[in-house]
Amino acid sequence: MARSTERTVSTPARPEDERLPVAATFGYGFQHVLTMYGGIIAPPLIVGGAAGLTSTEIGTLIAASLFMGGLATILQTVGIRFFGSQLPLVQGVSFAGVSTMVAIVGGGGGIPAVLGAVLVASAVGFLITPFFAQIIRFFPPVVTGVVITTIGLTLMPVAANWAMGGNAEAPDYGSVSNIGLAFLTFAIVILLSKVGSGVVSRLSILIAIVAGTLIALALGMADFSGVGEGPVFAFPTPFSFGAPTFEVAAIVSMLIVILVTLTETTADIIAVGEIVGTKVDRKRIANGLRADMASSVVSPIFGSFTQSAFAQNVGLVAITGVKSRFVVSAGGVILVVLGLLPVLGRVVAAVPTPVLGGAGVVLFGSVAASGIRTLSKVDYANSMNLVIVAASISFGMIPIAKPDFYDQFPTWFGTIFHSGISSAALMAILLNILFNHIKAGTPEDPSVFVRGTASKAVDDDQLADLADDDVINHSVRRSPAHAADPAHAADPAAGPRPDPAAGPRPDPAAGPRPDTAGSGQTR
């Protein structure tokens, strides 16, 4: 009895509030850092290179990005009044603004103009976060499932690029050795996930990355010679690139980036809430977005850019099953330390990119799988939900399949729709409003594409086998065809069927129908 009471007391009310031992907490937290490290250092590398900065100055940008990413992560996960969703979300420099920042740099404004635009645009974003918190009612499973699935699918090119080597200009880009190392890391993740030990399975990504790095080192594919170069400790200096400058055109273009960031962060908050199995309401979304924007306002002071939730770490939560937000908080602490100790950052940076690519295939795929699981909850019978899913995912895949698709459009349009996540999210929201909120004009027997998708021929015995899946039972039993057809086109091997002699069961809408047992109805 004592053990039962102790277990009850130690069980948190919310899954994300679970506390693990310190060693496990920081081990899982470090796994989060390794997962997003390549993504968080890429924007400062790209923007710094476009601005013509020296390697030392680019290093300062990277250190600032790690430092601010860590602080933003801690704020988002631990949370204070009005700030932080208290969900396991890792924060870092958003990819959404890279092209815009490069354009600002190319326009002659340099890094100070970028930092000024980020500061002002983020402040405006902070003021409008309550509006974004109100859109939660427009995110039913048909929308969230589309967004989560698209997040995973849009990240796959990143994993593929990493697996090929990360640098398209390198002579070994796409070589058999690079892709082979990525596949080996991928195989280690899968094998470790099969191991009986839960701890090993949950740490499979981290262990695989370490193992892949050691193998690469033995094969001469990893280079740690540069780890000792540069300072061991460095604190990000405020306004190290000079005072921010404020250009109207730069601020307007960055405002569009902020809108995209708010949309993607909203989607990530809902996605991780779905994966964790916790309640996400308007207040929680507003708190998460305020933490996002507050961090983005402070970032330019230390030489960093807009902060956003990292979708790949949502995938890590899904694949490991570790839902504790304190694990991600520990990852935030590690990021802060990496920002203060560039030598540790150089160690992590030495992890071969193909190793990260092999792990990324599993991580990003798990995000898409989580979205598919959410879409399984959608009722497709007598609705246009299938059309919403089909059109939205296809629309989101356009900029992924053809990155130059919107190159001839205005910059503001391209900034929004070059993101597959934003494209899919906006389309899903608009179509959901059109078909599910605006009832006028929607036919009772909607679409030829939908009619064939309803579960119209499922045995009662099959339903019994699916008794544990409330979603499937619910959607099938609501199917009008299933309710009206007493024969159910049963498989003789499935067991007893209703007696045809009992006569037809009435259709509330159309009245009695003849028995269709021999009508040739297919399953």
Explain what you see.
This protein has 523 residues and is mostly helical. It has helices at residues 2-10, 22-50, 55-78, 98-106, 110-133, 141-164, 176-194, 198-202, 204-218, 248-276, 282-298, 311-320, 325-340, 342-349, 353-375, 385-401, 411-417, 420-437, 448-451, 460-465, 470-477, 480-484; strands spanning 91-93, 307-309. It has a two-stranded antiparallel sheet. The protein starts with a helix and ends in a 39-residue tail after the last helix. Residues 1-9, 451-498 and 505-523 have low confidence and may be disordered.
Radius of gyration: 26 Å
Strand order of the largest sheet: 1-2
- Overall residue-averaged pLDDT value: 79
Low-confidence stretches: 1-9, 451-498, 505-523
Shape: globular
Helix/strand-derived category reads mainly alpha
The multimeric state of the shown protein is: single chain
Give the distance, in angstroms, between the N- and C-terminal Cα atoms.
52 Å
Strand content: under 5%
Q: Fraction of residues in helices?
A: 55-70%
**N-to-C SSE string, H for helix and E for strand:** HHHEHHHHHHHHEHHHHHHHHHHH
Q: Tally the helices: what do you get?
A: 22
Question: Biggest sheet: strands, sense, closure?
Answer: 2 strands, antiparallel
Count of strand segments: 2
